[in-house]
């Protein structure tokens, strides 16, 4: 049961999601990196795929330089939806999915980077957190979607058909967050982010984050992805 994953080459770690795939009988991961200059063979990529997962990005959905990569990503979502293949879209991926569904994102008043609690409609399957947010654009909820969680700042999770869009990062492990912070430390500190506190919380709540991600994915896979 292959999983097609769309990601930046620099941010393609699936982290806790890998365990979720194993738990639910999902197997081979086919990775599509957004930086590829050649057109993606979308129909071929989706052949026999049981799930599409898209991750965060170094880009903004407002960047003109990455417009063609977003267009390719939208074609993947469009074809997956037409075929009835479930989609789990995270952070930037969620914003691109919203764009494809007619709800483009807009710039946030300020970056939202840190651990957040969400107001969840069902905390048994979508825990309230804390979850890791790291974004500069606000997730928009398309017409016909069901809002499942939000913060005072913006929507965080919605379902649309067999798709789940998630603004925060359920996949990121403490070790992966350490790596990303090291890549962006100067920029984070310029934005006033306490990077030591950010990473310390990841390590402090590692097992809780793992369990919450299993809950989130389990609810998605048995409910939304199954068309229930």
UniProtKB/TrEMBL annotation:
GO cellular component: cytosol
Record PANTHER family: GLUTAMINE AMIDOTRANSFERASE YLR126C-RELATED
GO molecular function: transferase activity
Keyword list, A-Z: Glutamine amidotransferase, Transferase
Gene3D superfamilies tied to this protein: 3.40.50.880
Protein name: GMP synthase-like glutamine amidotransferase
Source organism: Streptomyces fulvorobeus
Domain Glutamine amidotransferase: 59-182
């Amino acid at each position: 049961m292959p999983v097609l994953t769309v990601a930046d080459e620099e941010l393609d770690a699936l982290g806790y999601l890998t365990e979720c795939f194993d738990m639910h009988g999902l197997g081979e991961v086919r990775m599509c990196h957004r930086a590829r200059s050649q057109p993606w063979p979308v129909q071929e990529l989706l052949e026999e795929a049981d799930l599409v997962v898209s991750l965060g990005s170094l880009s903004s959905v407002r960047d003109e330089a990455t417009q063609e990569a977003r267009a390719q990503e939208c074609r993947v979502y469009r074809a997956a939806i037409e075929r009835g293949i479930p989609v789990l879209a995270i952070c930037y991926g969620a914003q691109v999915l919203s764009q494809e569904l007619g709800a483009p994102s807009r710039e946030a008043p300020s970056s939202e980077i840190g651990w957040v609690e969400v107001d969840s409609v069902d905390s048994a399957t979508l825990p309230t957190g804390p979850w890791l947010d790291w974004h500069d654009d606000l997730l928009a909820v398309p017409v016909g979607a069901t809002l499942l969680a939000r913060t005072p700042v913006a929507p965080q999770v919605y379902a649309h058909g067999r798709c789940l869009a998630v603004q925060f990062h359920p996949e990121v492990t403490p070790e992966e967050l350490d790596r990303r912070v090291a890549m962006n430390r100067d920029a984070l500190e310029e934005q006033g982010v306490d990077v030591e506190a950010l990473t310390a919380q990841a390590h402090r709540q590692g097992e809780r984050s793992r369990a919450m991600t299993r809950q989130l994915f389990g609810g998605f896979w048995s409910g939304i992805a199954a068309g229930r």
